[in-house]
Design brief:
alpha+beta, six-stranded mixed beta sheet
Length: 151
């Protein structure tokens, strides 16, 4: 495992979040335009119901956007040149069961045929790993993991 792999994984996470942020902004604009069109063509209770539904959708999208922006900020704060001797936020952890990037919750991803999991430090499996060092073992969901690499 090398520093370049960690940089590629980090870049994949950034790209995924940037794409999601762009999608959310597009959806928010569509909801805004729909609300304007609804205002021009509706009246009465039907109008109020439609307006409320659009408001709820806009609030939901704004909340998702805030989460993604926060995640992007957290990712950008990771020092990619730091060498970790124990598992903590920002570490790329190689185990006998796969690669884990302790960063933000994005789930299973793939970059150039390398599969990895981008997980938050709050994820249950991350909590089992935090503080462990290379060659340490831990158990999660009745499975044994061995940390073979740390970047």
């Amino acid at each position: 495992m090398d520093a370049e792999l960690k940089r590629r994984i980090h870049a994949t996470c950034i790209k995924k979040l940037e794409t999601r942020i762009s999608e959310l902004k597009t959806e928010l604009e569509a909801v805004r335009e729909s609300a304007i069109a609804e205002t021009k063509s509706s009246m009465g209770d039907k109008y109020e119901t439609g307006r409320e539904m659009m408001m709820q959708e806009r609030n939901k999208l704004n909340k998702q956007l805030d989460i993604c922006v926060h995640q992007l900020t957290a990712l950008n704060a990771i020092d990619l040149d730091k060498i970790y001797t124990e598992v903590r936020h920002g570490a790329l952890v190689e185990t006998n069961k796969g690669l884990f990037f302790i960063s933000v919750a994005l789930g299973a991803l793939e970059k150039e045929k390398v599969k990895f999991f981008a997980i938050s430090g709050e994820a249950p499996i991350a909590k089992q790993m935090i503080g462990k060092k290379r060659n340490d073992n831990f158990s999660f969901n009745n499975q044994q993991y061995n940390i073979s690499g740390l970047q």
